[in-house]
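Hi team,

As requested, here is the filled-out complex form for the NAP run. I kept the field names the same as last time so the parser does not choke. Let me know if anything looks off before we queue the next batch.

— J.
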Amino acid sequence: MDQWAGKVALVTGASSGIGAETAKLLAKGGMKVIAVARRLENLKELAASIKSEFNVQIYPIKCDVQQEEEILKVFKWAEEELGGVDVLINNAGVVVNKPIIEGATEDFRKIIDVNVIAMAICSRELVQSVKKRNARGYIFNINSIAGHYADLITMPISVYAASKYAVTGMTASLRNEIINAKLDIKITSISPGMVQTEMIEKAFESLGDVQTLLEGVPILKDKDIADLVIYGLSTPRNAQICEVIITPHEAIAPKNPRPFSNQ
Ligand SMILES: NC(=O)c1ccc[n+]([C@@H]2O[C@H](COP(=O)([O-])OP(=O)(O)OC[C@H]3O[C@@H](n4cnc5c(N)ncnc54)[C@H](OP(=O)(O)O)[C@@H]3O)[C@@H](O)[C@H]2O)c1
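And here is what came back:
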């Protein structure tokens, strides 16, 4: 990823899990990393551990991506202080482990706001930043296997799968728009199966003891996803990875051979 060294990366949802690990690997790779989330303390701890491990500075900024003005402030800061954003990792995400048929409208809105609307706002701002500078850019959308095979997920996840199908559609639309606008911006959707992070702990907590429930269950690590981002950034200028589905190895053969069907 040497071609991106010295450029600016913005990672949303960098306070834990996939986002934190991605911010770390990007900083290690020589990028100037802006790490945003609501839990500023976590971001500061991440910045301190990156500083002590690799002697590089990252920029932690508190930002609730449900608030458009907070996102816009981050992009403005990036423009004024670092020249703009070149690489965007649209990673912030939420799940609620309640069925839609008994769920609260507020939860539906939160999931769509964070997983879909914030991604659209950030992507628009990244494209405008790159366009203004006639620069190169890269957008990674952290999608999910739930955005392709909702039938495989039988536990209640509210409108999470719907939000991730929206990410699949948005990535395709953005790619077409970028091509039509003749911009030098790559876009990759990364769709993981189950990854050991706080999100999984929250998703399982109402079902019993999380450690017991996950015992022996094949699961990805946050680094497996962060490594894919680094790989994408390492591709030559003429090659674009459009879609990656990554699952834990042992779980790759779906138990349901017809993932689009309940039969
Ligand atoms: N874990 C899995 O099995 C799995 C599988 C497929 C896809 N994914 C996707 O991977 C992405 C990262 O999730 P993760 O697994 O790493 O879970 P995680 O550790 O819970 O991370 C979620 C991140 O999103 C941030 N976030 C949530 N609401 C936010 C808001 N309103 N404003 C700003 N940031 C917000 C959280 O930060 P704050 O709480 O500090 O704001 C946190 O940093 C998500 O898009 C998720 O859908 C996860």
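Two things worth flagging: The radius of gyration is 18 Å. The longest strand covers residues 185-192.

Thanks,
J.
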